[in-house]
Amino acid sequence: MEELEHTCPLPRTTLIEPAIFTPETSCECRAPHEKLTVEQARLGTPVDRPVRIYADGIFDLFHSGHARALMQAKNLFPNAYLIVGVCSDELTHKFKGFTVMAEEERYEALRHCRYVDEVLRDAPWTLTQEFLEKHKIDFVAHDDIPYSSAGSEDVYKHIKEAGMFVPTKRTEGISTSDLITRIVRDYDVYARRNLQRGYTAKELNVSYINEKKYRLQNQVDKMKEKVRTVEEKSKHFVYRVEEKSHDLIQKWEEKSREFIGNFLELFGPDGTWKQMFQDRSGRMIQALSPRGSPSNSPPREFSPSRSPSPPSRWAMPRTSPPSSPKGASASISSMSEGDEDEK
Asked: 79, 45 in Cβ contact below 8 A?
């Protein structure tokens, strides 16, 4: 694996370390520098050196438009080494205007772009022949729109005439000016947000009246957020109550149907209770009805050795009620026979 890593190094387009800073004295490239044409560079350069491309700019509020321009410059030729020149605050404020980021911040932003091989600090505003030879620059990359500055209609005019200019395309919809315009347009929003985060009115250059206005607006926004939160919670609560009430109603309906079914099964016209009542009423009638004595039962006889005890005054003969006419006649005849014996 180690041999493969040495023989197949990663391409320079996939940098894993920040770009180096150019030494302030002179370029360290010791290879002999021969002037190349665009056609020669596109076919491939000598093995001993890459094509050295230079791209300069302010790069304030470094954004994707900057990165895409540098990507195009890096991929113009098969073997390219991209040097990016960044102008200082002094030159920028003199020829262009105030910047949001300080020059050291802009240097560091460029160092961490994956397409940049080297960063040149305090780059000149106008490129001279001495500067190009000093850094052994083959081509200068920039968008093709004339850049009027420092009393010149196009600061890259002499580069284009020398055949050392390679154009890149701008990314529409994104630029430093566009970002600053967005901030200025929504200034109140950003000022209120930073006041809420702890920045002072002095740091934000906000007047006393505006500070009080922004803080009042922040309080109003907080109240609105609380009301919105309460509304969301109440909606969620009502939804849960409705859902639970629906479940309760459904369960109640199921239980009521079950109760009605059990009630009909027990007390209905053909229910269990009616059958139980009929069975119990039949048993009670059977228990209350008298049992008739058998018709062919023999008459009662007394033994001669033992005289019958005289009947008690209050004693009544125990006779079972006749269950049939035959039983009744038999009991009457037996009673008459008994009377005759006693006489």
From this structure: yes
164/212 Cα distance (integer angstroms): 57
pLDDT digits (tens, 9 = 90+) for 14-57: 556 888 887 754 455 555 577 788 887 887 766 668 899 999 99
| Count of C-beta atoms within a 10 Å radius of residue 71 | 16
pLDDT in tens, 93-106: 999 999 999 999 99
Residue 91 backbone dihedrals phi, psi, to 5 degrees: -65, -40
Using an 8 Å Cβ cutoff, are 51 and 138 in contact?
Answer: yes
Backbone angles phi, psi at 295, to 5 degrees: -70, -25
Total-model pTM: 0.58
Query: Nearest 5°: phi and psi at 210?
Result: -65, -35
Q: Rounded to the nearest 5°, which phi and psi values hold at 153?
A: -70, -30
Check: CB of residue 143 under 8 Å from CB of residue 58: no
Of 98, 83, 110, 97, whose CA–CA distance to 149 is shortest? 97
Q: Quick one: what percent of the chain has pLDDT higher than 90?
A: 34
Residue 152 CA, chain-centre distance (Å), reads: 55
Q: Residue 343: what pLDDT?
A: 41
Query: For residues 90-117, b (16+ Cβ closer than 10 Å) or e, as one string?
Result: ebbeeeeeebebebeebbebbbebebbb
**170 exposed, middle or buried (CB, 10 Å; 0-12, 13-18, 19+)?**
middle
Q: Which residues pair with 57 in a beta bridge?
A: 86
